[in-house]
Amino acid sequence: MSSPETIPLIVIVGPTAVGKTELSIQLAERLGGEIVSADSRLFYRGMDIGTAKPTRNDRLRVPHHLIDVADPDQVWSLAVFQEAARQAIQAIHQRGHLPFLVGGTGQYVKAVCEGWEVPRVPPDSRLRNALTGWAQEIGSLELHRRLAVLDPKAAETIDPSNLRRTVRALEVILSSGQRFSDQKRQVNTGYKLLKIGLSRPRAELYARIDQRIEGMIANGLIDEVRGLLAQGFSPDLPTLSAIGYREIIAYLQGLITLEEAIAQMKRQTRIFVRRQANWFKESDSNIHWFLVGDDTLHEMEEFIRRWLTSSLSAPG
After folding, report:
1. For 125-132, which contacts have Cβ atoms below 8 Å and span 24 or more sequence positions?
2. Could you give the angle at the alpha carbon of 227 between the alpha carbons of 222 and 230, nearest 5°?
3. Which is nearest to 102 in space by CA: 192, 242, 190, 198?
4. Model confidence over 34-56: pLDDT tens digits?
5. C-alpha span between 11 and 54 (Å, rounded)
6. What is the CA radius of gyration of the chain?
7. What is the pTM of this model?
8. Rounded distance, CA 155 to CA 170, Å?
9. What is the largest CA-CA distance in the chain?
């Protein structure tokens, strides 16, 4: 079996709606690659429109991995993702293809690239249920503030609206007596990493976000959410708290109008983009940034080819 030291890994990051999907597919087509998704929203079957999931035609053009691997009521943890991503990258390399890790979920990208060892504290269902009950009393944002008091570093890396991750971090802290962030050790993955970031002017990115959300509504997002609920999936599932799904659920429940749901989706996506920028900073010298334009595909292809030539000729 090939050693990880021999595996070049192309990592493509950037904010939602910047154009990662199409550019990564075109690059993989030209360079003999396969794509490993590092977008936690794409794991779940039946959640297609609201996640801007690559289409079936996209996936016929280039093999994609870690998409549609779970039902909405199953939880794919960071540890499960890490192992699945590692296996997918290894298998792609063994087939003689070039692995691309593509996505906007910063925690998942960093976990693979930096070889995080996630805390091995076993689940404590009683404590977890107590924390979840507490969140129902004080609200998920307030619970996140409590986490920030105990472990500011961990709180910075967890979306305040992601109750499941907030609860898990508190569970680990209270069970072990140690901060969650202190238990995330790193190991040397051995991958030869090339990190590429995609960017657009903020006004252009926001306009693309608005167009995407309006397109989701036009393409059937309401029916998609209605169908998930009709299958028996609870509206309280963590997966259905994702942007787009929670707003449409509120609309279907009669809590807000469709216009209000769309406005909230646009506003929350802008907030999410700003959070993504904390993971993928344009000041990060380890990320090679490209401003998306007419010549970006050609420039990125040539850049990757040069890197591959120098990387593969360098000592392992």
Report:
1. 127/171, 127/174, 127/175, 128/167, 128/168, 128/171, 131/167, 131/170, 131/171, 132/163, 132/167
2. 130
3. 198
4. 999 999 999 999 999 999 999 99
5. 17
6. 20
7. 0.83
8. 10
9. 62
